[in-house]
């Protein structure tokens, strides 16, 4: 890391309890940011907060669901002095690899709520703060599921394509305010995304599995966090609206 990129800055990180979100929160805190981390898993989030605090860095943790407006309001209310320089939308859920003919409304609505509505509501909340401050950066974590349809179920693929589109829209509309928005599309990553990644329809998973042969390696969360950290920093000042795959060459 090149110096204290985030000294004196505030970073809001969703999904901070584990996986990529925890790695991002820890890395940004180590780079000088006051991290406001949120997650639904109170125990996991507390562990992230302790790790950051024990290292002597600034952290505030807020248990909340990014898809719920009331929780978004509570999260944003915890920003120190109402300031936010970087928003990292990392929280996400899978969809059991369900094809469109098998997807139920509950799964569809939950995946879209967490993967699309959450980032939208948080972006909607922080953009006025960034505009008033003269700038900021939003880094969304999508997936190669936002670039191809062959790696997950219909709800997840749709949600990640939508997140890519949202990022580009923000980049185009707010560039003149000094605000940048970029999206990272990881391939396989060693995370505990949990039971929503358990396949439920064998024939669909078998068809998707054919594409998995292109996987060259599975990334570690900090390898994705490194990219998120750079995109949110001033070193990436000329990068706006970029869709950056970090997949070991899967989509090459």
UniProtKB/TrEMBL annotation:
<dbReference type="InterPro" id="IPR036291">
    <property type="entry name" value="NAD(P)-bd_dom_sf"/>
</dbReference>
<keyword id="KW-0560">Oxidoreductase</keyword>
<protein>
    <submittedName>
        <fullName>Short-chain dehydrogenase</fullName>
    </submittedName>
</protein>
<dbReference type="InterPro" id="IPR020904">
    <property type="entry name" value="Sc_DH/Rdtase_CS"/>
</dbReference>
<dbReference type="GO" id="GO:0016491">
    <property type="term" value="F:oxidoreductase activity"/>
</dbReference>
<dbReference type="InterPro" id="IPR002347">
    <property type="entry name" value="SDR_fam"/>
</dbReference>
<comment type="similarity">
    <text>Belongs to the short-chain dehydrogenases/reductases (SDR) family.</text>
</comment>
<dbReference type="InterPro" id="IPR051122">
    <property type="entry name" value="SDR_DHRS6-like"/>
</dbReference>
<dbReference type="Pfam" id="PF00106">
    <property type="entry name" value="adh_short"/>
</dbReference>
């Amino acid at each position: 890391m090149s110096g204290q990129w985030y000294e004196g800055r505030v970073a809001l990180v969703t999904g901070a309890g584990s996986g990529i979100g925890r790695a991002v929160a820890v890395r940004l805190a180590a780079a000088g940011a006051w991290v406001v981390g949120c997650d639904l898993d109170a125990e996991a989030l507390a562990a992230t907060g302790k790790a950051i605090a024990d290292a002597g860095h600034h952290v505030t943790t807020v248990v909340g669901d990014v898809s719920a407006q009331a929780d978004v309001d509570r999260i944003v209310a915890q920003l120190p002095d109402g300031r936010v320089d970087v928003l990292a939308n990392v929280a996400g859920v899978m969809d059991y690899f369900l094809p469109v003919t098998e997807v139920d409304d509950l799964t569809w609505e939950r995946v879209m709520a967490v993967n699309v509505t959450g980032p939208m509501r948080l972006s909607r909340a922080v953009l006025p703060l960034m505009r008033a401050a003269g700038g900021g950066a939003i880094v969304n974590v999508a997936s190669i599921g936002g670039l191809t349809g062959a790696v997950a179920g219909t709800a997840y693929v749709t949600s990640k394509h939508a997140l890519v589109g949202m990022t580009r829209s923000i980049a185009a509309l707010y560039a003149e305010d000094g605000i940048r928005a970029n999206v990272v599309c990881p391939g396989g990553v060693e995370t505990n995304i949990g039971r929503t990644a358990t396949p439920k329809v064998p024939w669909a998973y078998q068809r998707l599995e054919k594409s998995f042969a292109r996987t060259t390696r599975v990334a570690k969360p900090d390898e994705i966090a490194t990219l998120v950290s750079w995109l949110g920093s001033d070193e990436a000042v000329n990068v706006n609206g970029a869709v950056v795959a970090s997949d070991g060459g899967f989509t090459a």
